Amino acid sequence: MKKTKFNLNEEIEKIIKKFDINNSWSGNILKDIKNYEQKKFRKNSFKRQDLKTIDFITIDGEDAKDFDDAVYCEKIDNNWKLYVAIADVAHYVDKNSNIDKEAKKRGTSTYFPGYVVPMLPEVLSNNLCSLRPGEDKFVITAEILINKNGEIKSFKFYNAVINSSARLTYNQVNVFLKNKTIVKDKGVIKNLNNLFSLYKSLKKNREKRNAVDFDTQEFSFVIGKDNNIKGIKNNARLESQKIIEECMIAANVASSLFIKKNKQKSLYRVHDEPSIEKIEDAAIALKNLGYSFTKSKIPNTEEINKIIEISKKRMDDNLVSTIILRAMARAEYTPKNIGHYGLSLKSYNHFTSPIRRYPDLIVHRIIKDIIEKNKSQYNLDNLEKIGLLSSENERNSEAAERELQSILLCNYAEKFVGKKFNATINTVVNFGLFIAVDNEPIQGLIHISSLGNEYFVHKEKKNILIGEKSKKVYKVGDKINVKLVSAFPSEKKIDFILANK
User: Fold this and answer.
1) For the chain, what are the domain ranges?
2) Chain centroid to CA 82: how far?
3) Do residues 497 and 308 lie in contact, with contact meaning Cβ atoms separated by under 8 Å?
């Protein structure tokens, strides 16, 4: 049978259809898009502070087109004043407008290699709302005073207009942090140096409150002009990314406190503690790796960080992080504030990405209503429904992204059929072993039937497979030699067998 040639665009189309992701705009929205493009959009803006002389910068990935956050930092005595300016999407997108209704249905932008299904039309996401350098842009600004210990001392929020001084990438900023030569603008240099100093204080605060420090392996696909996968690139998290992450976390905390201080309801980003059942499963797997982890109680984040820290020294941190991540609850959107377990924060919402996340747009509208002294557009019932829908949309979008990633990995793995690898067992199930290849981002199954000429029993409590005659044991963390025997992209299946060295 002739093998079908892989076509990335076709695979993306199939995934979009399977996960019911809307990838077109209705006639009404197309009319609205035309109005935006022809500058027929007229709306009086509430009083705005003029921040155009401040050297704001955006720092994003190489391929980013929607720049929804810009940052600026200055030293004030022993404190830092951080400005986080976020695209004022709520100025352009009214509640219950055609575009708003569609954004609510989508809930989020969905990202595939080389292709995005945006939450908002491109005229907004990549043009009017994108904080491109050298252009006047409407924003909501969080002005936050942070002390040397990385603690938020005060905050204020207001409508503003900015003109970004530079669009920088994470790689550029990382190079700058090492040798200081890549950036020439003095104002931008000063801002970057201040942001880096502030980051060190925010990082100390993060460590002090014991936010869980997962440093999971991330990778991206290198797609050629023929739409085939040329390779896979490991994406280590750069210091420059962590600077922006910490600034965004500070803005998200401040926005939740600002809304609370003004006695308004909000949509929080919450993360519950893990369930005891999930902790029991993690404790068994970690015990097999030689870690002490109490299975009879919910651990605090300090205990989790200690295990991650030890695992980094033992060089099995990827596996340990994966096991602990499996035990974690999913983060969700809800008006009930139960705090964020992973970040160790009592109050947290999503404010910083209104171009690509619908809950952030809701938070913007709530903040604007406070700033502009209007009655809030949302009550508890509205927020409950939006939170449920947004959480569901996020899960669906992530599942679609993961499914395409699995198909691409299978496609990539096909060229290794017949090759031997060193691998690690990362999951034991009653029908075999799921393994991860050590030097490639490939994972797959060794079926129980290929483990040997005997019957293997799954001991659930110990999370092991054991041979009835030989008493040979397979457990999570074991290092084994494997041979890749087949890869089926259409089924998202990669099969291995045990191999001799």
Assistant:
1) 8-262+347-382, 276-327, 417-498
2) 23
3) no
This prediction has a pTM of 0.93
Residue type, 163: N
Task: Indicate the SS3 state at residue 342.
Answer: coil
The CATH code for residues 417-498 is: 2.40.50.140
Alpha-carbon torsion, ordered 93, 99, 105, 108, to 10 deg: -60
CA proximity to 389, closest of 26, 111, 108? 108
Q: Are strands 229-234 and 420-429 parallel, antiparallel or unpaired?
A: unpaired
The alpha-helical segments, DSSP class H, found in 85-238 are: 89-92, 98-106, 122, 170-179, 186-208
Phi, psi of 487 (to 5 degrees): -140, 125
Q: What string of DSSP letters covers 141-165?
A: EEEEEE-TTS-EEEEEEEEEEEE-S
Cα separation, 36 vs 42, whole angstroms? 9
pLDDT digits (tens, 9 = 90+) for 397-453: 999 999 999 999 998 899 899 999 999 999 999 999 999 999 888 999 999 999 988
Q: Write the CA distances from 334 to 268, 341, 349, 438, integer angstroms.
A: 5, 15, 9, 39
SS3 469: coil
Q: Do 256 and 349 contact (CB within 8 A), yes or no? A: yes
